[in-house]
Specification:
Blueprint lengths: L9 H9 L1 H17 L13 H11 L37 H14 L9 H25 L7 E7 L7 E7 L5 E7 L7 E7 L6 E7 L3 E5 L11 E7 L11 E6 L3
Antiparallel strand pairs: 1-2, 1-8, 2-3, 3-6, 4-5, 4-7, 7-8
Helix pairs in contact: 1-2
Length: about 260
């Protein structure tokens, strides 16, 4: 919002003065906003360094013919000092039109699709987009190779009393041993707010896991909680009355099974 010119108040300004990371991020976002504006005075872009093309070249696996930075300095002039002869007169001088022939060759190369084409902004954008797609493909490949999460227990949630919502719940365990309960319902029928519970089979004991503000939620299970003692998943309709107890109005309920 600040990068777009919005005023977020003194708190944001104070934070930016004390946080170098956020200040740097804001400056980067401002450069994006400036680059997107149509005015010619705002459209100037900083020339990327040679490391940018080196990264694109490596990521796309391009050949050695286009290894040089296309926005870098031109190749060395074809003129070279000639070795002097014993008499002190240069033994050989380049032809007077060598520089002109070299420039004309560069023009022809540009027209024929040589290295000069890479100077066009559209090509740079295409190369950058290809790099992003390549990175996205790597991420997708890594995700595809990850094993699917196997739930420790799961339950189908059925409507209770006058309600019609349905849903599901499952318990999953992370690599660090932390267990979480993932709950989904197909609609929110609470008149107050939804609260998720684990309840004992005889309904005499229950543990609140927290408030679910949408049609799904993930809740950390207390360490040491025995699911066999609290196998019932319950989503209740709680009034905003300050009473932490169960309202006795359940929307959906189901029993976890391994």
């Amino acid at each position: 919002m600040l990068a777009l010119g919005e005023d977020l108040g003194d708190d944001a300004a104070d934070h930016l003065r004390s946080c170098a990371d956020c200040a740097a991020e804001l400056e980067g976002l401002r450069r994006v906003v400036v680059a997107a504006r149509p005015g010619p005075e705002d459209a100037a872009l900083a020339q990327p360094g040679p490391h940018v093309w080196a990264g694109i070249h490596s990521a796309l696996g391009l050949g050695s013919a286009v290894a040089a930075d296309p926005l870098g300095p031109p190749p060395e002039s074809p003129f070279r000092p000639a070795a002097p002869s014993p008499s002190g007169v240069p033994a050989e001088l380049p032809a007077p039109d060598a520089g002109a022939r070299w420039k004309e060759g560069r023009k022809k190369q540009d027209r024929s699709g040589g290295a000069g084409w890479i100077r066009r902004p559209g090509v740079w954008l295409a190369a950058a987009a290809a790099t992003v797609l390549l990175a996205a493909g790597v991420v997708w490949s890594v995700q595809q190779n990850q094993p699917a999460v196997t739930p420790l227990a799961q339950a189908a949630l059925a409507p209770v009393d006058q309600h019609s919502a349905t849903g599901s719940a499952r318990v999953v365990e992370a690599a660090d041993g932390q267990r979480t309960l993932e709950v989904q319902v197909d609609k929110n029928e609470a008149r107050g707010y939804q609260e998720v519970w684990l309840i004992a089979p005889d309904l005499s004991r229950l543990v609140s896991l927290g408030v679910m503000t949408s049609e799904s939620g993930t809740f950390a299970l207390p360490a040491g909680l025995d699911l066999s003692e609290y196998p019932i998943v319950d989503v209740s309709d709680e009034p905003v009355d300050g009473n932490p107890a169960h309202s006795s109005v359940s929307i959906v309920r189901g029993t976890l099974a391994t």
